[in-house]
Amino acid sequence: MRCPTCATENPEQARFCLNCGTPLAVAETRRKERKFATALFADLVGSTSLAEHEDPEVVQSVVGRAFDRLAEEVERYGGLLEKFMGDAVLAVFGVPKAHEDDPERAVRTGLEMQAVLSELNRGFAAEGRPQLAMRIGVEAGEVLVDLERASGPRDRMLTGDAVNTAARLQTAADPGHVVVGPAVYATTKEIIDYRELAPLELKGKAEPVPAWDALRIKARRRGERPSLGLEARLIGRDEELTVLKQTLHRVESEGRPALVTVVGTAGVGKSRLAHELLNDVEGRPDFVYWRTGRCLAYGNTSYSALADAIKAQCEILEDDPAEVAGSKADAAVVELFGDTEVAAEIRALVASDTSRSFAREELFEAWRRFLERMAARYPLALVLEDVHWADSGLLDFIEHVADWAQGPILLLTLARPELFDVRPMWGGGKRNAASIYLDPLTEDEAFAMIDDLLPGELSDELRRLIVERSEGNPLYTEEIVRTLIDEGVLRATDASRWEIARRVEEVELPRSIQGLIAARLDALPDDEKSLLQDAAVVGRVFWTGSVANLSGRDPAEVRDALGRLRVKELVVPHEPSSFSGEAEFGSATT
After folding, report:
1. Beta pairing partners, 216
2. Residue 535: Cβ-neighbour burial (10 angstroms; 0-12, 13-18, 19+)
3. 524-587 sits in which CATH class?
4. Nearest to 571 by CA among 240, 235, 265, 261
5. 338 — phi, psi (to 5°)?
6. Residue 399 and residue 413: Cα distance in Å, rounded?
7. Residue 558 CB-density burial (10 A; 0-12 exposed, 13-18 middle, 19+ buried)
8. For 361-443, where are the E strands, in sequence order?
9. Which segments of 226-370 are extended strands (E)?
10. How far apart are CA 581 and CA 531, in angstroms?
11. Closest Cα partner for 381 from 489, 293, 450?
């Protein structure tokens, strides 16, 4: 160690400098991780000149109120405030835990921050106070995160080009606008409407940086993935689809509810399976109510997925004012019941009417009766997606309907395995409940899917490369194909077929897939996540002994942890092992 006083080199075990006696502090070991994160840099325009002309207390009040509301928007979308710097703020999405849609969250936050500031300005104007304007820049990239600082003082928490680029984009933005860089644009262009800007000359950048001005959210529900524009047949799910069809038929014929939960990792085909059931329903001569709702990873309100389904029945639009939504709810109740007996409870769900307070039992009974009246007219399929993100109240209500409802009601819930982390006994003990587990596609099924997506004379090498990288996950297959098309590796011919335009040596996982994987890993307990990190050092194939030796853990502890990771489908066993007496595992993409 080098002495900080006299610069003398000292042996590692020395506690004091051998030359001058200065204490030698042992360098602190801090946990750091590389992450793909999104930085949002926002700056209030003209606050310095404002302070020159206004009373300091007025300026502090206006700026403080603005920052408090802006911070709420960052928190609502799952972001982390890294620091305030005078009249600027830096927020980061994907730290300390990644989400599969961090760039989208950041852009949504930026647009909401501008809308909130406009709302605040109207209030400031009414009070005779000065108004504010703000510029926002957003960019994503690999950053180095100090995890200790992420959970404590956050100054100097992360380092990376994305942070600097977001700050530079902010300086180039017009007041009231959100400007994004190429990484964010590439992952959100199907979700956000953008106006392309001329490449920007940014300080510290050798080349002009492409940039886009975020205009608005496209008319699409949050959580829905954009269509690839190519679609394969439903492959490898015939048995599961048959089970759903038979269950719906039994619900109709017996006149009693059933709860079916389709379980699988992200992208394995849960929504596609439900869509194929809808296609079958729409092709039948008899009518079935098909109502859907989706739970969100962020910005959820209690029972929001159920509210979506009931709003559809009441023909309530997303932009309907509360009084209009309430009137439509009343009309739907009268149509089903002939009176307004449960109108107040339905209003509380779909119109956020808080004029009355209800016990949960009252709400559950009223909502259940509303579904029963619907089912008395026509069989009802209530499809709730992503229930692993549902609030506990919604999960309780689903089970309440399964236990107590009367009539032909199919409760079809779609969930990732994480649902069983919060509800280990989900559906257990109910004679009318079942779970369908979706496994990855087999190799032959994956090849068939590629042939459907890309008809043409593709080389076996490229087809196999896609299959190996996607590991049987339909979404991953689609996203890799999308990347190959976007990067010009594949091009369409005049005959509506596909051909290889240039050679590809290696297919990297698209950022959308990396986000899904990172989100799953960051949701793990620390001991399981660190074990996977140690296994990754060994390689895509690893052994219990090698991981135990590398991590310094007891082999029995490693075996138990790998068993839990196997249940979560994050590692898969390989039989037979390459080494006698050693359990061999491979990493699963998800």
Report:
1. 193
2. buried
3. mainly alpha
4. 265
5. 85, 0
6. 11
7. buried
8. 380-385, 409-415, 433-437
9. 258-263, 289-294
10. 20
11. 293
Q: Tens digit of pLDDT for each residue in 196-242?
A: 999 998 888 888 999 999 999 885 555 555 555 567 889 999 999 99
| Tens digits of residue pLDDT in 304-326 | 999 999 999 999 987 788 899 99
CATH of 32-217, one of 3.90.1150.10, 3.40.50.300, 3.30.70.1230, 3.10.310.30: 3.30.70.1230
**pTM listed for this prediction:** 0.76
Which numeric CATH code is attached to 238-437? 3.40.50.300
CA-to-CA separations, 482 to 268, 269, 454, in angstroms, rounded = 17, 17, 11
* Helix, strand and coil in the chain, % to nearest 5: 45, 20, 35
**What are 375-429's pLDDT values in tens digits?**
999 999 999 999 999 999 999 999 999 999 999 999 999 999 989 989 999 988 7
Q: What is the DSSP string of 96-160?
A: SS--TTHHHHHHHHHHHHHHHHHHHHHHHHHTTPPP-EEEEEEEEEEEEEEHHHHTS--TT-EE-
- Give the sign of the dihedral formed by CA 586, CA 587, CA 589, CA 590: positive
User: Domain coordinates of the chain in residue numbers?
Assistant: 1-30, 32-217, 238-437, 443-513, 524-587
CA distance 407 to 373: 9
Q: Which residues pair with 437 in a beta bridge?
A: 263
Pairwise CA distance, residues 32 & 159, whole Å: 11
